[in-house]
């Protein structure tokens, strides 16, 4: 798994910025930022927070390498999880409660944050298996 510094380097590369330019945008010096990228020093929370705000990055991804990289991506995944879950609930002959729908939405969203390339059909298949196991 990549370190916070490696993920910062990835962000910097995507933004096509030099270390000095990126450092200014996250409120640190180029020399300090270089040590974070190389993993020689722990990245301060102030830099992590600034990077998340400046580049619309999901803090969970930046800190732990989990979930969607971008906040916008997470919103899109939530919308997709909602749509798939809503259609599944509508098409499945089960007496649904709002709590059950919420649990299935969370299941869908959590799965998509780790497997965003999965098809809607596969997500439906997983939901079918979850319903079968719940009975």
Automatic annotation (TrEMBL):
UniProt cross-references to Gene3D superfamilies, sorted A to Z: lambda repressor-like DNA-binding domains
SMART domains: HTH_XRE
Domain of life: Bacteria
GO molecular function: DNA binding
Ranges in a coiled coil: none
Domain HTH cro/C1-type: from-to ranges: 8-62
Pfam families with a match to the protein in the record: HTH_31
Annotated protein name in UniProt: HTH cro/C1-type domain-containing protein
């Amino acid at each position: 798994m990549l370190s916070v510094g490696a993920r910062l380097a990835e962000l910097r590369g995507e933004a096509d910025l030099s270390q000095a330019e990126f450092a200014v945008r996250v409120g640190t010096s180029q020399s300090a930022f270089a040590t974070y990228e190389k993993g020689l020093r722990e990245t301060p929370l102030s830099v992590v927070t600034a990077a998340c705000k400046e580049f619309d990055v999901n803090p969970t991804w930046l800190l732990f390498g989990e979930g969607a990289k971008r906040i916008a991506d997470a919103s899109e995944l939530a919308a997709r999880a909602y749509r798939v879950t809503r259609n599944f609930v509508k098409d499945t002959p089960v007496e649904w409660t709002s709590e059950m729908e919420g649990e299935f939405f969370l299941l869908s969203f959590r799965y998509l944050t780790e497997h965003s390339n999965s098809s809607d059909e596969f997500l439906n298949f997983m939901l079918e298996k979850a319903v079968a196991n719940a009975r």
